[in-house]
Amino acid sequence: SYQNFFFPRGHLIGSYTPLGVPFDISEYSLRSVRLTNHNNNPTIGWELVEYHGTDLTTSYSIPANVLVGSDNYNIIGIGNRAYQFTNAIPTAEIEINHFNLIRIGNHAFRDLSGIKNFIAPGVVTIGDSAFRNSSLKIAEFENLKTAASHAFANNSQLNKIDLGLIETVGASLLYENTALHQVFINNISSSGTNINITIGQDAFFNVGTAIGGRFRIYVPDGTGSGGLSYADLYKNTLPAAMTQYIFEGGMIVGSYIHYPFDFDMGAYNVREVTMTDPAEILTTGLEIIGYHGADITDSYTIPFSFNINDIDVPVISIGDQAYRNAQVEVNNTWTIDFPHTLFYIGDYAFYERDVSRVTGNIFNYIGERAFENAPNLEWLEINGCKVFGEYSFHNIPTLEYIYIGTGITTIGNYSFYVSGANALHSFYIEEPIPPTITNTTLPAPNANLTVYVSWDAWQTYRNAPIWGSYDIQRNRIAYLGIYLYEIINGTEIQITGFSGQHNSLTIPEYFTIDDVDYPVVSIADGTFNTAGNMRNITLSAQIRRIPNDFLSNNTGMRDIYVNAANPYFSSIGGVLFDKLGEVLLCYPNDKIGNSYTLPASTRVINTNAFSRVGRVATLTLNSNILVISKDAFANNTVINTYNFTSTTPPYITAFNVFPMHPQLSINVPSGSLANYQNYFALQRYRNYISD
Question: Cβ neighbours of residue 629 under 8 Å, at least 6 residues apart?
Fold first, then answer.
């Protein structure tokens, strides 16, 4: 029963007299050791054999070096069980930053509570159970090569760990670390189709299971042996269950804290890429490597840019598996309107995700299995895509409507195939030259499926191999060649899509179809979101319905105008309001000006009104404002300053109406600070409010 209390004899240093014991027992025991550092150079220093001093507090640190007699050495090792029997006071939150350590022994910090962060870039070896069942949250060892069995097992609070250049991963290394989000590995030694790493049994058992699919293993960006990316080499090496969690490293941006943990894991992992756009122009922008933020809600939109070093950099690519693990919040619907800046979607990017509708502009590539098995996808509408990867929209029996525009060169095998019953009734393709397809590219020909093509290409498709076996019809649904529409109520038009490249657009009062004038009364969700060239739009007198997300993802819009005869809507200074000017419905995302003051008539700010605004940094609210709707500013981190002019807060229909970011400032009238700070919907912003 005493075997764990035997230690190598060394030098006793420091001073500590336990309560009730009339004897100074010292604090540490040290011995001289010779270790090989990460540069393979032999190094002489002290090993801290064991600690037996006072209970540790937040201010505790491991000495960097110690003078014993005439010997002044760095502490380069922590001995076996050195701190296993040490106690910390209950409130301790100890952060260790030690740049001299090379080796941490077996059980060295086992069962030690109070230790939160451990950063030691020089450590090469970590022994068995070294940090097992401790209270670690962050651990960084950028030159680590060997971590033995159970070294970090059973750390229920561990959020982030850097395993450096690790070559040997011991059995059960990260066993039962259920809150673990980020694992960084930077070993680039490879041979054949694998990374040169030995993986012990159960090394990744039950990791990250308490954070809702947000566990990530970040590996180097680049190419190793056999021309394979490091990500693929790691996927071939680590346990198969880890494959979907392996991503190239990049920049962590955004903010997300997963309750009940207090670690800000960020929301996105991004990197800079240079790719050829659909116009064959080399374009530099950002790729979303992975999303690990909050669960997806109705208001979520894929960012069109990120601010990197004070520069707004456009998002041009969604990487492999980027949203593969994203979860949709219960009772919410995920509608994807891709930013017009984006033209590449990687393999498995949205694999099996609960998406209901997808719209976008023109793509170079939509990857293999990108949307495969999406359980509730009903609508696909994009203006063009050169290459659809194999299985890209495979096995989606709920898909009813497909519009894929022009510029298609390849539709991969099984791209839209469903083997059994399916809901697909309309397949629109504007490409005049039939792309080569196989018998399993589309669902088998059936009485419900019609393929619509341009008038000039009708006979060409009817004569083309495989295409000719389908019901090919001329596309009459594209009015004037740019509007997709549907007839509603038997006598009216709803615009459902737009494929033009207009800089300025006035919506027609009527569509004349077969010599009958149908009034245009409605605009469907997402209709103009991908019209990236459009700078202004005018609503006709007949329009009476627009969606809540009207133009929310159109990043080029500067002004919205309304025909004066329209009884439902109005425009004030190029901003869309209801007819009376009381409800602000949509502020154009690219409207010129870095500040905006609500007109005196404004009473309500509607959902998504400022959700993607790209220029306004300061917003001043009038004293008559009554209601700010949920998601009025969703995903907007450009507005830094909100100036309230009423001494009484308006009704706010959400607890997170203002996106949190470091520059956020909420200014209120003098003498009204308590009114705002005590308002229930502003509790999370108390520290940002000032008068």
Answer: 604, 605, 606, 607, 609, 653, 654
Phi and psi of 275, rounded to 5°?
-140, 160
Characterize the bridge pairing of strands 379-388 and 344-345.
Answer: unpaired
Give SS3 for 513: strand
CA distances from residue 251 to 151, 288, 663 in whole angstroms, order as listed: 28, 10, 20
Tally the C-alpha atoms within 13 A of residue 103's C-alpha that lie toward its C-beta: 21
CB 637 within 8 A of CB 661: yes
Could you tell me which of 293, 260, 250, 110 has the C-alpha nearest to residue 178? 260
pTM (2 d.p.)? 0.72
**Residues 78/51, Cβ–Cβ less than 8 Å:** no
Q: Which helix (H) or strand (E) holds 58?
A: none
Q: What is the pLDDT of residues 84-111, one digit of tens each?
A: 999 999 999 999 999 999 999 999 999 9
Report the DSSP beta bridge partners of residue 75. 46
Sheet-wide strand order for 182-184: 94-97, 115-119, 138-140, 160-162, 182-184, 216-219, 246-248
Calpha distance 511→523 (Å, rounded): 13
Name the pairing type of β-strands 94-97 and 115-119: parallel
Point out the residues of the chain with pLDDT beneath 50: none
Q: Which amino acid is at 626?
A: L
Q: What are phi and psi of 612, to 5 degrees?
A: -125, 25
Q: What is the pLDDT of residues 503-528, one digit of tens each?
A: 899 999 999 887 889 999 999 888 88
Residue 288 bridge partners (DSSP)? 270, 318
Closest Cα partner for 289 from 310, 307, 309, 266?
266
SS (H, E, C) 196-255: CCEECCCCCCCCCCCCCCCCEEEECCCECHHHCEHHHHHHHHCCHHHHHHEEECCEEECC
pLDDT, residue 284, reads 97
On the question of a cis peptide bond just before residue 303, with omega within 30 degrees of 0, the verdict is no
- Secondary structure, 3-state, 402-467: EECCECCCEECCCCCCCCCCCCCCEEECCCCCCCECCCCCCCCCCCCCEEEECHHHHHHHHHCCCH
DSSP state of 124: -
Burial class (CB in 10 A: 0-12, 13-18, 19+), 331: exposed
Q: What is the dihedral of CA 469, 470, 476, 480, to 10 degrees?
A: -80
Residue 557: the pLDDT is 93
- Which residues, at least 6 apart from 121, have a Cβ–Cβ distance to it below 8 Å? 99, 140, 141, 142, 143
- At a CB cut-off of 8 Å and minimum separation 6, what does 295 contact? 212, 326, 327, 328, 329, 332
Instruction: Output the six-digit token pair for 321.
Output: 């598996």
Kind of pairing, strands 492-498 and 483-488? antiparallel
pLDDT of amino acid 368:
97
Question: Which pLDDT belongs to residue 361?
Answer: 86
The per-residue pLDDT for 568 is 97
Residue 530 near residue 557 (C-beta atoms within 8 A): no
pLDDT for position 501:
76
For 73-121, the three-class secondary structure string (H helix, E strand, C coil) is EEEEEECCCCCCCCCECCCCCEEEECCCCCEECCCCCCCCCCEEEEECC
In 3D space, the residue among 50, 43, 46, 41 whose CA is nearest the CA of residue 71 turns out to be 46
In Å, how far from its chain's centre is CA 429?
32
